[in-house]
Amino acid sequence: MKEQEIRRKEEILEPRGKLGVLIPGIGGAVSTTFIAGVELVRRGLGEPVGSLTQLGTIRLGKRYEYRTPRIKDFVPLADINDLVFAGWDIYDANLYEAAQFAKVLQKDHIEPIKDFLASITPMPAVFDRRFVRNLDGNHVKKGKNLRDLVEQLKEDIRNFQKTQGVDRCVMIWCGSTEVYMKPEDVHSSLPAFLEALEKSDERIAPSMLYALAALELNIPFVNGAPNLTVDIPALIELAKKNKVPIAGKDFKTGQTLMKTIIAPGLKARLLGLEGWYSTNILGNRDGLVLDDKDSFKTKEESKLSVLDYILQPQLYPTLYKNYYHKVTINYYPPRGDNKEGWDCIDIFGWLGYPMQIKIDFQCRDSILAAPLVLDLVLFMDLAQRANMNGIQEWLSFYFKSPMHKENLYPEHDLFIQLMKLKNTLRYLMKEEQITHFGLDYYME
Ligand SMILES: NC(=O)c1ccc[n+]([C@@H]2O[C@H](COP(=O)([O-])OP(=O)(O)OC[C@H]3O[C@@H](n4cnc5c(N)ncnc54)[C@H](O)[C@@H]3O)[C@@H](O)[C@H]2O)c1
Fold it and tell me: Which parts of the sequence belong to the Myo-inositol-1-phosphate synthase GAPDH-like domain (predicted)?
């Protein structure tokens, strides 16, 4: 992406007409909570709590100017009234039934919008059980080979665009976590990937086929799960070639959100870390999928890397070199989507004296994820209209494993991530960057 290609301020294309939101995994807990929530907000029956685009503000200029508009009044975002939804799932239940199955929202949030939810039915998915072993739905496409499946997805998207009168779309993967995969030669370049696709190579996961379909139709793609998906050189190359924004991976909610709030604080005060033990119980379908060790490994990798990047043991060996870090997720059906996460943090202070911090976060997974989905859809659409393409690192704020350029380490500190995001918005609107320097106020 070249700087002069980025459209800024008045050059950013206006968000005219409807914005299509395409969701692989549309029948899941996160998707149904997101879609129902948007409709409730539109009807004045709910508040978009947790959404930066809907509730957040941004400071502009000097502190004494008191210019703090809402983000949605500052940058040209699509209006939530203009969102229309479609997606795929391996189960054919409509969203009214799926939301009831997910048991995230209560009756008084589902019943008033029953007609709306029941009107959205998943399209048959591209699915392969080798990648998600603990699920077995039959609402699945058949194809001659992987290319054929991609073409079927593209046909679904074109039909949706035509019937809904939609010209801009964003695709966001809210499907299950696929088994752990390492990038291999077939993922290393676009020609190698396309050749492997023709041969239906078994190292190409279903999520990659959705991403390919999106990118070939110039649709921005976001990955909400920790799967490799679009985080491979082949698809990054395609995103740049077709000038499409991409972002991922793995929504930062729950325990990792807490970790990236607390760890920067410990490091800021140079408090040492002996160990950080994290465990969770979770009883929804995501928990069932993660009960398979290879799907969990994908998640584990995503959760573990966070601390090392924040604490930088190579720079602070006496404080952070040998800390013990463990993360587990236990499938425990009675809790459903209401995950409970415990952290036992062993720290040390002045002269090495030990101290402990305990966290018991009784959270609601999809309630935390839904506003992230909304923000990502709106910001990715903005990125596309501003002609920003390839990896959107400024959206790291939303992810456990932010995608980043090769040879550049990811930024995990939530507060730096937020500053990065807001400075990108200031840049796009030709406002001065805010460094929080502040000494200038005291210079005569
Ligand atoms: N706070 C959170 O909830 C959170 C945070 C980070 C990441 N995630 C990730 O988001 C994803 C969704 O989470 P969830 O709680 O909604 O899970 P879920 O199991 O309720 O929903 C996932 C849906 O994807 C469907 N699916 C699986 N493979 C598919 C395919 N190939 N094509 C289309 N549909 C497919 C499943 O049938 C299911 O309905 C998971 O990967 C999860 O790890 C969730």
Answer: 254-366
Compute the distance from residue 2 Cα to the ligand 1 centre, in Å.
35
Residues 88-104: tens digit of each pLDDT: 999 999 999 999 999 99
By residue range, what is the domain housing residue 340?
Answer: 254-362
What's the pLDDT tens digit per position in 125-139?
A: 999 999 999 999 999
Q: Which ligand 1 atom is nearest residue 33's CA?
A: 16
Rg, C-alpha atoms of the chain: 22
- The ligand 1 atom at the shortest distance from the C-alpha of residue 87 is 33
pLDDT band at 297 (very low <50, low <70, confident <90, very high): confident
The answer to whether position 156 is within a domain reads yes
Asked if 146 and 263 sit in the same domain, the reply is: no
Q: Is 28 in the pocket of ligand 1 (CB under 6 A)?
A: yes
Q: Which atom of ligand 1 is nearest to the CA of 177?
A: 41
What DSSP designation does 440 have? Answer: G
Cα gap 139→89, rounded to integer Å:
7
Residues 153 and 122: beta-carbon distance below 8 Å: no
Q: Is residue 329 lining ligand 1, measured as CB closer than 6 Å?
A: no
141 in ligand 1 pocket by Cβ < 6 Å? no
Distance from Cα 225 to the centre of ligand 1, integer Å: 7
| Order of strands, sheet of 272-282, starting from the edge strand that comes earlier in the sequence | 324-331, 272-282, 340-348, 354-362
Q: Is 438 inside a domain boundary?
A: no
In a domain, 81, yes or no: yes
CATH number of the structural domain spanning residue 101? 3.40.50.720
pLDDT digits 0-9 by tens, 236-273: 999 999 999 999 999 999 899 999 999 999 999 999 99
| Whether residues 264 and 410 fall in one domain | no
Q: Is residue 19 part of a domain?
A: yes
